[in-house]
Amino acid sequence: MPNIIDYIEWRGDLSFENSPINEIDDIIFSRFSYIPFRCIELKDIDTIGDIALKMKDLDIDNYLWNDDKIFLQKIGNCKRFKNIKVSDYIEIFDKAAEKQFAAITLWIQDSKKYISFRGTDSSLVGWKEDLNMGFRKDVPSQKEAVKYLDSIANKYKDNLIVGGHSKGGNLAVYSAVFCKDNVKDRIERVINADGPGFDNSVILTNNYKKMLNRIQTYIPQSSIVGRLLEHEEQYQVVKSVQKGIMQHDIYSWEIEPTKLIRIPTVTNNSEIFNGIVSDWLKNTTPKQRENFINVIYEIIMETQAQKTSDFRVETVKKIAIILNGYRNVSGEDKKEIEQMVKLLLESTFKILKENRNTNKLIEKEKNKNEQKKLIYKGEKSL
Questions:
Q1: Of 109, 169, 204, 266, which has the maximum CB count within 10 A?
Q2: pLDDT, tens digit, for every residue of 237-278?
Q3: What distance in Å separates the CA atoms of residue 183 and residue 35, rounded to the nearest whole number?
Q4: Nearest CA to 215 among 9, 6, 26?
Q5: Class of domain 4-267
Q6: How far is CA 226 from the centre of its chain?
Q7: Which residues lie closer than 8 Å to 187 by C-beta, 6 or more apart?
Q8: 19: which residues sit within 8 A by CB, 6+ positions away?
């Protein structure tokens, strides 16, 4: 089925004057921030075509996702995207602060800029920062995103679109909610492509409510990442050809000529996952979650792994280190881990039971309706 790369081939010869920016373009721009710009020398203002040329022979191992290389070459060699200017790239990796952040600005039209925030990379620090959202009001990348948005708005006086995929979508929303008021006025829309939500301390703010009608959230039918934490905005369910967690890959999202293909609702599995996580969060305190996540992270760090891909090397040995690390944690920490796992299992059993009961009621009601139809047909035939 066609995806955003097919879209580039279909409509890449059309300028934005001939075919105005649409939601697929928004998704393309949200993905652009994942390109490994650190591997080349960026000028103050390069075009997408310039960047594609510089990265033409770059080894695919430098890309987070294999399709990113194909994606870059496609947009870098078509009329619609190749002449878009790119500026103000920033990338920050701070292991001590548990911060992984990157953003870039695209000059998509006269007097309009798109700020694209990168999501989680393959680093364990990046994943740890994501987990920290489960117990912190804010994380370092969110604060960095606000600073970046305010600085770009101060530097250029154009209207703005802010977007990102995964954690990048979360950063896009957070930055738009907490940027300066005069910057908010210039934001046309905020694109959240399957990014996690927020703690209620964000959701309940007036700033969030003021930005709500400009947030466009897209999630695939079996979304996991995009259902994490709280969302107040209405999300749109898009169709993915993948299954489970792999639907987080936006290259798996199906498209029509100028829009993403919608489906009515998320799958039952997505609802179950969301229910389990929500129930677990409700029954645990932020401090409990912080201790739990930190202890697990410290155990994993004993393997000396820096990236998720490091676990492909000497996997058995790394698992042994993790198990040994668990055995060596203090009795108090071990007790806390076991308690948190117990609460998670309780939430799982509870939600699965509720889901079964709901399905039974639905089936029972369905059977009753079928019986009524049969009775009605019988009476009508007499």
A1: 169
A2: 999 999 988 999 999 999 998 999 999 999 999 999 889 888
A3: 27
A4: 26
A5: alpha beta
A6: 6
A7: 159, 160, 161, 162, 176, 179, 211, 214
A8: 11, 80, 258
